[in-house]
DNA sequence: CACCTTAATATTGCATACAACCACAATTTC
DNA sequence: GAAATTGTGGTTGTATGCAATATTAAGGTG
């Protein structure tokens, strides 16, 4: 029943539900859907090639995750953060993400470390090639590894909630070349700390990384 | 279309959607739905007096909030935490929640403080009357005030995610009378600190409160 | 008797139809 | 001419039907 207009655009998942969620999320991360933009159920359904039902489920999920906002009978729109919101975001991350790094690094598997290295490299490549819109998703995956492996289920949940908004804030867009370079160096150093299985080192680097990021974003937004 | 079997059981919200969510959540908080229990869409739909659609939306929302777990093609069940999970939960709360108290207390309105006092009183009354099943919801509302008013949107979101599981863990059930009394005293002292608009005091009491709660829950689960 | 196969049943996944609602514009009324 | 009102197009909210999948039970086979 969905084989008419387009061959199901491209399949992120096998189920309509997962597919809708994955594609919407990817659109949010890449910036195709700008903050404040309306997300019309019918439009999205046609674009993704499923009915409105899985779209609604995906939107609800994204709303629960804080990536979109739903107004009753009006629809969903991409969240848009104020500069203050984003500063707050980094405050919370500075408080808790280093701790997650401390906990997770000794627990990382070989594959985790390998994946961290790969992601860091991919971000580096994206910067070189000027494909900055890819950075949000890659960075989310990178930090996600520390968050997921910290061994405290609830800390993971809380940090996941904190990390997700960065995906739609497109913070990298406002970095200067120098700040970008510094951020990439931090990633490389986090990989090194992970390779060395040195949790304290990772914790320290993570704190530096986040405070530097906060500065980059705050200064960019305060003097336009 | 729902006026046949029962006069809509009792209306928590005006919309089917909100109503389903509110009622399910209330059932979870009160313990009517035990951890591990299956949540059948059809059964719930009939019980609440709406169709399966709003039930599904509510279940998805609850799943995103971590109160139920959905297995594809199998259905949803109430989350059940291990003793270790619950200990982890209190570790995270001990880290985050005192800070939220510090931030929120100076920002509380008169009504907020009044409401805190009322909730503390209601919990006291519930303890006296032995209606322990009501405590989870009341306690969630009490702590929720500090969380919501902390002024940092993202800290609120993260703490909301942390606070919710306590609602289904029914931790008060395992408190000794002495521990219950102590917990109630902490609540009263939090109200006092809020009245005095002393954030640091509230922060300190909150830390005490959570660490004591952790001890109560951990010792109860470790020697059965 | 144990084990595999197969049929029946229950439950979820998804699509679709219709109703309720909102926003905005054209029209009427003062 | 301004304000209130009604109409209309579009969007979301909810119910329902059918298809797909999992679970259970029964039956057959080694």
From TrEMBL, chains A, B:
Key word Coiled coil present: no
GO function terms (MF aspect): DNA binding; DNA-binding transcription factor activity
Presence of keyword Transcription regulation: yes
Pfam families cross-referenced by the UniProt entry: FCD, GntR
Record's keyword terms, sorted: DNA-binding, Transcription, Transcription regulation
Protein's name in the database: GntR family transcriptional regulator
Species the sequence originates in: Arthrobacter psychrochitiniphilus
